[in-house]
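pasting for the record
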Amino acid sequence: MKTRNRILGVLAIGSVIVTPVIGIFGPFNNGNLTGQNTTELFLPAGYAFSIWAVNYVGLILYGLWLLRADSKRANQAAPWLAASALGNLVWIWLAGSVTTVPLTVPVLIVMEMTAWIAYFKLGIDQRDALPQGERLLAIPLQIYLGWLSVATIANSAAVLNVLGWDGWGVSPVDWTLIMLVAGTAVAWEVGRRVNQDNVYRAVFIWAFVAIFVEQQAYPAVAWSALAAAGVVLVMIVGTQPRQHKRLFEAAQ
């Protein structure tokens, strides 16, 4: 198992190192996919994408951890972590051509699913019981999953934009408002199901505030995004007492 983990760790690290290189010299222009109309409104300000640095560092740290770990959790999580890391490389390659851009949606979904499987295999849903080091190591993966959840919504909208979808007669502003509601609902429900994961939820605030910054030309979108960020912040603040209670009980 340890040899297998080392191979998967190297695969994860290699994928994460190569992916941003392709991104720098590849298909992106201020966060847009190839062929994407820049009027897409569920699009955050460019600075929001800097969160990928945290995601990549986290995946590299997990890859390094796999090089030496031989625990049951590591053995179970290793293939899923490597698969999600490799998915980044596949996704960014597909994003470089209008003909393959639609395939980025299922790839992103697979990336998120495999990351969630790793999340549960690593016991992050019961993170209070993890050793301190593993709890800290889990934070980048929690952030990664939060961003993948936001990105799944944004990527789906962007692909429809590339394909020239007319929105069934619904205006782009109204569709963006619907997506903001959907994102807020995901932050609540998914966060609730994984033991009130407020690190995961905080990523939605990051994304929604960046949408507010980017979409000032569309006040309804901008202020709705800021309101959505406020709702998620209330979720986080409202669930903190329960988290503190669990930590206190675990310490007894």
